[in-house]
Amino acid sequence: MKNQVLEIRNLRKSYGSLLALDDFSLQVNKGEVFGILGPNGSGKTTTLGILLDIIKPDSGQYAWFGARPFSNQRARIGALLEQPLFYPYLSAVKNLEIIADIKNVAYGEIDELLEKVGLTGRKHSKFKTYSLGMKQRLAIAASLIGKPEVLILDEPTNGLDPRSIAEIRELIIDIASRGITVLLASHLLDEVQKICSHVAILDRGKLLHTGRVDEVLNSSPMLELQADDMRALHLALQHSGVVDEIVSEGPIWLVRMNKETGPAEVNKMLTQQGIYLTHLAQRHKSLEKHFLELVAENHA
Ligand SMILES: Nc1ncnc2c1ncn2[C@@H]1O[C@H](COP(=O)(O)OP(=O)(O)O)[C@@H](O)[C@H]1O
Ligand SMILES: [Mg+2]
To answer: Do 133 and 254 belong together in one domain?
Structure first.
């Protein structure tokens, strides 16, 4: 498939007796913002390490851009794994120039990158004077030197304050909107929910679920309904033929409709029977709920 950026097939990796990755397979296509979501120790960093040829798997394969060996594709991939090493007494510009030298890339793109990550005003300051958030933004700029087609990020907001977290997330969304495919590992549900188009849920080295984030979120929409006469509402719903489940939740009925029925149709159907809703809202199963259910099943 020509849009395929990454294919992972049946990766397995153990550290001694610990199985860190168990038959892990995945596809990532161009333009996706792909989140690998899993609790600490689930094998995310191991996966990224394998994909960057830093860790050797026991078995299984992967291919970037449908090709091998990895060394031929390396320049197309930008990565931010551990804290990168910058020289504390050198400026942001100088540090990026050193990285450009290592990557054998001209300095031309450095100013633009610093602008993109919002460091233009401080680009001549010494690295050691930077806040954690600024350091992380510089690290992202460094990973973008050489115009990679893919950006790999491992827990990019770890240890940052809320404002820096928001900045980094916006920056990742901005980078993705320019057509760079992003592969991001995170143990934070809301991070994946906010940034990613696709998700793979990993637990104890096993892939539990993969798909579009919005599909996970929309997998089972429920309707919250309220009317002056809750009994009449209940009866009407029961006999409507489009309801799969009705649950009482405090003052509301929480209703799961069958797939074809939307909120507007429910409202119309009830109105026709003289029942006027005082409250109608859609409730999506959160990624968090889905995630917790999957992990609980995997531990059962
Ligand atoms: N170098 C190593 N030696 C031994 N065990 C390791 C090593 N690296 C990771 N592990 C173990 O492998 C599992 C997966 O780790 P890791 O890939 O770092 O998970 P994550 O990034 O999801 O937190 C964990 O149980 C971890 O303790
Ligand atoms: Mg990790």
So the answer is: no
